[in-house]
Specification:
The chain is an alpha+beta fold and 130 residues long. The protein has 3 helices and 7 strands. Helices cover 32% and strands 35% of the residues.
Length: 130
């Protein structure tokens, strides 16, 4: 019991950003560094995986999820498609060597669709875990 209390008190002073999810090391996703929701329901995640692998998996995921053919822009890395009647944009950024940032935004009739963006980023992360 004292260990649990000590652990709780040790973690208490750590700063926590709004919408930030702690790295999921305990859940078996050791490559996931952070995941958060930015203003306008933009979902972002940072992973410890090479940018080329993340780019390939993101394209494959969008091809499967998109109702229409996807548009791919090689530089900067951007994928656009239609998921659940929302226009979805996935951007992939090389943050550092073997560290990549994924950003997903979904809009329908110029209104943010946070739930659709969350489903897309979750699908990408799930496929990266395979």
């Amino acid at each position: 019991m004292r260990r649990i209390l000590a652990l709780c008190l040790a973690v208490l002073p750590l700063p926590v950003a709004t919408g930030c999810v702690a790295a999921a090391f305990g859940a078996g996703l050791g490559f996931l560094l952070s995941q958060e929701v930015l203003p306008n329901d933009v979902h972002t995640a940072q992973v410890m995986i090479d940018v080329e692998r993340v780019w390939d998996v993101s394209r494959e995921t969008m091809e499967v999820m998109s109702l229409e053919p996807i548009e791919v822009q090689e530089y900067p890395r951007k994928i656009m498609g239609k998921v659940e009647d929302a226009d979805v944009t996935v951007e992939i950024f090389a943050y550092d060597l073997d560290r990549t940032t994924i950003t997903v935004q979904a809009e329908k009739y110029m209104v943010s669709q946070g739930e659709t963006a969350r489903r897309v980023i979750d699908a990408i992360i799930e496929r990266l875990a395979e």
